[in-house]
User: Which sequence fits this backbone?
């Protein structure tokens, strides 16, 4: 099986109050990468958009497929990167925060069941008290498509 | 009839001029200098080192001599920049192969030998395709190789476990086993594909 390597388009974006273009928080460019053999940690990348006029605090991220989801920042200096957990992240008003390789990522560990490339992974971003943003994307390998 | 001939001559002349301009432009575009890598003014010879590859074979300077190698110091439990970089290097290698270019050897030197045994490395690097070697060994020996090259790493607590902070550059080691150039993060497949043939031609 050689699933496409290209960035996977967002398949589903739902706010807890219902799918809505005017939702305060939306996401784009979602990619969820399977770990290489022998490893457990799944990495997810995306861009979060705050469409509102107030800052939004993402207090935590959960997934029904994983027991643990952590937000990590890669702190860089002098060409050295150190992975550091983030307790929360704020998306400034009318702004966006990118999770991309080498900057920030979501690390998903302790899978609830065995997952294979192509399986859907769900991420739920909890913000603003009881609001949440749910996104889904298929698990994909990091490799070029024809390898 | 003569009008047709004149017109044909004009068309041929225009085509000739256009072809000449195109060839000249191509000649000017022909890459001669790396655009992305930092090239050392004086190549820096690697120190002596004695490590082990994923097949439990010795890995020392002799394994680097005679061809260009790309060294990346990382670890298999790294969820982010290590697999991303290896995937980019594998993609670049694939594109260079498709273009018929000379191919570099890709070497992942672990900064986490406590967890990255040869067996773990074998499964890991095999995932990224041919031409990738995983290397491990005593942490002191890895540090003795890394630090003279400006590569540093450290163990950092992460919850109940630990992670490794580490340099993220991709080092270009020439056939003479000297550090020739380096690519700094964020890495890009196109940068590798553009610069590597130039670096390898001059190495």
Assistant:
């Amino acid at each position: 099986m050689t699933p496409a390597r290209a960035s996977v388009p967002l398949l589903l974006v739902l706010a807890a109050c219902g799918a809505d273009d005017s939702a305060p928080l939306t996401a784009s460019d979602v990619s969820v990468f399977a770990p290489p053999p022998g490893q457990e940690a799944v990495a997810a990348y995306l861009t979060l958009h705050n469409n509102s006029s107030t800052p939004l605090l993402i207090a935590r991220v959960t997934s029904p497929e994983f027991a643990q989801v952590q937000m990590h920042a890669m702190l860089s200096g002098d060409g050295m990167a150190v992975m550091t957990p983030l307790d929360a992240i704020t998306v400034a008003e009318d702004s966006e925060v990118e999770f991309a390789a080498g900057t920030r990522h979501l690390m998903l560990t302790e899978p609830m069941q065995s997952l294979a490339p192509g399986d859907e992974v769900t991420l739920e971003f909890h913000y603003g008290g009881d609001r949440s943003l749910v996104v889904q994307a298929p698990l994909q390998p990091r490799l070029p498509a024809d390898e | 009839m003569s009008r047709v001939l004149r017109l044909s001559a004009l068309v041929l002349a225009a085509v000739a001029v256009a072809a000449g301009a195109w060839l000249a432009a191509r000649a000017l575009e022909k890459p001669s200098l790396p655009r992305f890598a930092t090239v050392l003014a004086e190549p820096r010879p690697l120190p002596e080192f004695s490590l082990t590859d994923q097949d439990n074979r010795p890995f020392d300077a002799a394994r680097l001599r005679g061809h260009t190698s790309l060294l990346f110091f990382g670890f298999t439990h790294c969820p982010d920049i290590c697999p991303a970089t290896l995937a980019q290097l594998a993609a670049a290698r694939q594109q260079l192969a498709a273009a018929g270019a000379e191919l570099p050897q890709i070497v992942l030197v672990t900064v986490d030998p406590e967890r990255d045994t040869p067996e773990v490395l074998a499964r890991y690097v095999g995932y990224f395709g041919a031409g990738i070697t995983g290397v491990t060994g005593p942490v002191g020996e890895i540090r003795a190789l890394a630090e003279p090259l400006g590569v540093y790493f450290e163990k950092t607590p992460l919850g109940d476990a630990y992670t490794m902070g580490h340099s993220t550059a991709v080092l270009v080691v020439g056939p003479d086993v000297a550090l020739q150039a380096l690519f700094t993060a964020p890495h890009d497949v196109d940068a590798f594909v553009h610069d590597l043939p130039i670096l390898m031609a001059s190495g």
Q: What stands out?
A: Residues 20-28 of chain B have pLDDT under 50 and may be disordered. Chain B has five helices and ten strands. Chain B touches chain A at residues 76-81, 83-84, 86-87, 90-91, 94, 120, 123-124, 126-129, 150, 152-154, 156, 158-159, 163, 165-169, 184-187 (CB under 8 Å). The first strand of chain B starts at residue 38 and ends at 45.
